[in-house]
Amino acid sequence: MTALQDQRSASTALPLSTRLYNEDLAPTKKAGRTWSAYNIFTLWANDVHSLGNYAFAIGLFALGLGAWQILLAFLVGAVLLFLLLSLSGFMGEKTGVPFPVMSRIAFGIHGAQLAAVARGGVAIAWFGVQTYLASVVLRVMLTAMFPGLAPLDTNNFLGMSTLGWISFVALWILQVIIVSFGMEMIRKYEAFAGPVILVTMLAIAVWMFIEAGGSIALSTNESLTGGEMWRQIFVGGALWIAIYGTFVLNFCDFTRSATSKKAITRGNFVGIPLNMLFFGAIVVVLAGAQFKINGQIIESPSDIVQTIPNTFFLVLACLALLVLTVAVNLMANFVAPIYMFTNLFPRRLNFRSAAIVSAVIGLVILPWNLYNNPVVIVYFLGGLGAILGPIFGVIMADYWIIRKAQINVPDLYTEAANGEYHYKRGVNPRAIIALVPAAVIAIVLALAPAFSAVAGFSWFFGAGLAAVFYLIVADRTARFRDVDGEALAVASAH
């Protein structure tokens, strides 16, 4: 151990383990935390307006939902997300620990690796996919600015053109540079990107509204009615939870540096319910205006950007979409695998080196080939993602109902047999007993064609069943201590 760790060990009842503790996994000090309500809001200002979310939301219009039905679906999802993210965020603010460490509370100091790897594994694949999607926008921008580059976009090497490789690698390097400066640089980037994308999407919507003659189509010619309409509304709301099922797990990675619970609540309220309704209005205008113009339904805002006749404004719009996609990727898909690898190899990797490892894997898996393979997306990433709901259910039930938020933070970093989170050889068998059947059910509901009518609710079934199973098997005789981690904490902007 270092002198710093020896000093901290002396102030705790049990010795710290170098297999569980380093500067990046340590809790953050209460004093000097920097994530304000505005910073929490800008996370959502960026993530809600991601290109993937636009594609999903416009798909609701294509399914036959009209303007008010889409807004209602978003409102249903937003209210549920606000509640779930607040519960998850408060855990980070109280303990100051990242998600892999938070998982030790319910799953044990070693069993937590299961939750961390499941979350990080999904994220690392999507990091590569989102970087690829951003590179497509960059290619559009480069060929608009420099038409002579078009021939570089006609060949194929490992599934992508020369210009595609240049665009992908450039964005890959940019993200690695940003992340190498730590969470504080991510906070600053998100704060910069949030207003940029909000203004850009509003401008595109206004332009489309004008192009459509000052009015839009509020629905397609095949609008849903009756029971099927209401089913799709609630499925749409539920799918918002599924989309954010990854992020509700590791929201503590960000709120561990939040200034207060009030900052989390305010940031979540403006960033989720209010921002989602603004997002919904943008979706309705974009889809409705395009449908009125030529009877077609767009797939993404990037489809509209490519039609902007003025090169200068096309380039500005592309730049904004690039800023957005990088912001979304950093928060949703890059931070989680970094902490995953830091947790797996705390004596060998720090935040920066773990970022490089994550980025390299995101490159060598050739993510554009994954994205173009429905089997991989649906069955591998979909199946892996389906178990995140049950993980969330176990963690929430254990933290809020069984322990009532009484956490012994120093014991999260000890391998001593009498440590509170040692359980049996570092694994809580009760958590595994609750997780496995709930995960199997969630995966079947998500992937089996016979259950396609309820597939959109698989996250809820998984999370709810796991919580119930855990409450049935949990040890209710255990006594818990509430001990903060200030004695072994580090500055939040380290």
From TrEMBL:
Keywords: Membrane, Transmembrane, Transmembrane helix. Its main location: membrane. It is a multi-pass membrane protein. It comes from the Bacteria. It is found in: Membrane. InterPro entries: Pur-cyt_permease, Uracil/uridine/allantoin_perm. GO terms for molecular function: nucleobase transmembrane transporter activity. One of its GO terms (cellular component) is plasma membrane. It holds the Pfam family Transp_cyt_pur. The chain crosses the membrane at residues 54-85, 123-146, 158-179, 191-210, 230-251, 272-291, 311-339, 351-371, 377-402, 431-451, 457-473. Belongs to the purine-cytosine permease (2.A.39) family. This is Nucleobase:cation symporter-1, NCS1 family. It comes from Crystallibacter crystallopoietes.
